[in-house]
Amino acid sequence: MAWILIANLKGGKGDKGDTGNTYMGDLPSATNLLTWYGLSKVGSWGVPTQAIVDSTAGRPPGAKPGVVSIMPVGSTASIQRWEEYGQSGRVWTGSVSNGQRLSPWKELSSAAHYGNIALTLLTHFDQIDFDSDFSVWNGTVATDMGAPEGAVGKIRTEVVGNLILQTWRSITPTGAGPSEFVRAKGSTGWGPFVKRHPSSAPAPTAIDSGTKSGFKNVALPLTQQSSGGTEVAENATVRWPVRYSVGAKRARLHVRNWNYALGLNFSGAVSFTGAWFGPSSGANFTGTPTRLLTEFTTPADGSEYVSSWFSINIEEDREQLLSVGFTTAAGQSNAQSRSGCYRSANSADAGLASGFTGTANTMSPFDVWLEVEVPADTPIVGGFGDSNTVGTGTTFPVYDSWLSQYCRSTRALPYFMAIHGSNSGLWDDPDIPAWTHYGDTAKPDSVVYFLGQNDLQDGTTLSTMQTNLETVLPIVRDKLSGDVYAATVTPANAKAAAVNDVRKAYNAWLGAKPLGIKDTFDFSGAVSDDDATIRTADNFDGVHMLTSGHTKMAAKLSERPVNPQVLTQVEVAALKALV
After folding, report:
1. Diameter of the chain measured on Cα atoms
2. What is the pLDDT of residues 209-265, one digit of tens each?
3. Which residue in 17, 178, 195, 478 has the most C-beta neighbors within 10 A?
4. What is the mean pLDDT of the chain?
5. Rounded alpha-carbon distances, angstroms, from residue 298 to 257, 273, 305
């Protein structure tokens, strides 16, 4: 089992006097891990950014930021371990000798995502009595291991005190979507699996513009607006990472060249070469991608392009990419958005299955979002705020935001209502297009209010902060959801002590759940040890957090329920029958 293998690699360092667990600082750019051995290399090296990852030769395929540890084998060889950070961080081990890779990278992590896992070391799910999350991609193995339904799926085990909770999510790739079963183990042994999530994703039959009964359409943005900013990209490919905890079989693509914070359209048509989608590892597809759309062109006046409905296979809890190529007229200005993506300067790269040489980026042109059809009982959790909800400072904004990370861990979908650089003075107008630019898609069932950082300036008083919330909160309830939660405002390292005092007083007031707020979550405590500065390990620029900080804020939300219990149509019908 992967967990046992990981455990076997630990120890044997500091207790024997050598420096194998010593932190050596950041891994230099353009490092070649094939030659990373010798006593001067022994220890743990931080890999804090995707740019450093991408410049590192000999890295694991598709690796993301984390730590690489070097353990010596003589003077010309080493055993190497790469550990990603984040909720779904993966772990690899490998070895090198004399400039050659002696053994290939082998993934050991419990989230060994997308291949057959080492469950062959076990005989039954009953034997998994430790926190873990395994994928099973073989029907015979699944049946032999005790899966209640489905040829493939994921088995998650959570230890809670003296109890063990086990969840099986079955996937039938060519038919219905995932079903979920749960069971528990107590003093008398394992109970039976009970089906908890009876809904299934829609089969992509009659593709039309309507929504099928029993489903709802949800806006899943790939970009989030800055309060300003333009760029010029005359010939480009953009690839967005896509990963959700809910699958979908039908969608359509929305693209608009505008700034919805300012209500400003950018003129000039954008010619797209098409759109491709499929499972991925880093910036590349892991096989031949599916072409979702052929060539299309956005309106020259900057109004919205909406594709026809198409079949798509968004797989639950799997890394995938949406890739588009486009060209514009020379010198044409495009709206610039915050967005984690991979980019190249060649529109012909969009459909490449492998060999894509684009680089990771935190900015993207246009306003781009997918409208997907999901079961009607899928919870939607909204995040309302500024750049710290967008995910500015993370490796991949939007994708790595606390909201996306939280929803991936709780079988919900994220609803972003956030603008980088925004304050209460922007959101207090209920008629700005930002409030309605997702059209008539499903609204969130609950919202986390995380606005206020940009209101906290020299001279701002506690009374002003309270008035701002009193003004904007009714609009949030009207436009998004009546179930509103709050998160405390995180520190900004360079702001004056007087401003920080106002922030602390405001956060204390939020903690009392004023104005009907349902609950308040301590995001400040998640990323700060002194409630004055962002913890160094989680700090991006003194205002924004790295991906690790967003992981910790997402964990705060997991401490108490935020997701509502959304009723299925069967349950609604049963309740109506009682009236």
Report:
1. 79
2. 444 457 899 999 999 988 778 899 999 999 999 999 999 999 999 999 999 988 899
3. 178
4. 84
5. 8, 12, 5
Share of the chain above pLDDT 70, in %: 83
CB 563 within 8 A of CB 445: yes
573 φ/ψ angles, rounded to the nearest 5 degrees? -60, -40
Task: Provide the β-strand partners of residue 448.
Answer: 383, 485
Note whether 528 and 534 are within 8 A (CB).
Answer: yes
Question: What are the tens digits of pLDDT across the range 499-558?
Answer: 999 999 999 999 999 999 999 999 999 999 999 999 999 999 999 999 999 999 999 988
| Helix runs in 281-423, H state only | 387-390, 402-410
273 phi and psi angles, rounded to 5 deg: -80, -10
The position carrying tokens 């179930």 is: 483
Tokens encoding 74:
């003589």
**Which of 250, 273, 410 is closest to 346 using CA atoms?**
273
**Residue 422 identity:** S
> How far is residue 365's CA from residue 144's CA, in Å, rounded to a whole number?
49
- Cα separation, 452 vs 480, in Å, equals 18
d(Cα 98, Cα 38) in Å, to the nearest integer?
10
Q: Return the structure tokens found at 576.
A: 């109506």
| CA–CA distance, 527 with 509 (Å, rounded to integer) | 19
In order of 199, 395, 443, 444, the CA distances from 401 in angstroms are: 27, 9, 19, 17
Torsion angle defined by CA atoms of residues 558, 564, 567 and 572, in that order, rounded to the nearest 10 degrees? 160
Q: Which contiguous run of DSSP H or E holds residue 170?
A: strand 163-171
Helix or strand (DSSP H, E) at 453: none
Pairwise CA distance, residues 571 & 568, whole Å: 5
Q: How far apart are alpha carbons 2 and 92 in whole angstroms?
A: 10
Bridging pattern class, strands 446-450 and 484-487: parallel
Strand partners, 386: none
CA 213 to each of CA 177, 199, 307: distance values in angstroms, whole numbers, following the listed order: 16, 12, 21
Per the CB < 8 A criterion, the answer to whether 395 and 547 are in contact is yes
Residues 530 and 507 sit within 8 Å (Cβ to Cβ): no
pTM: 0.66
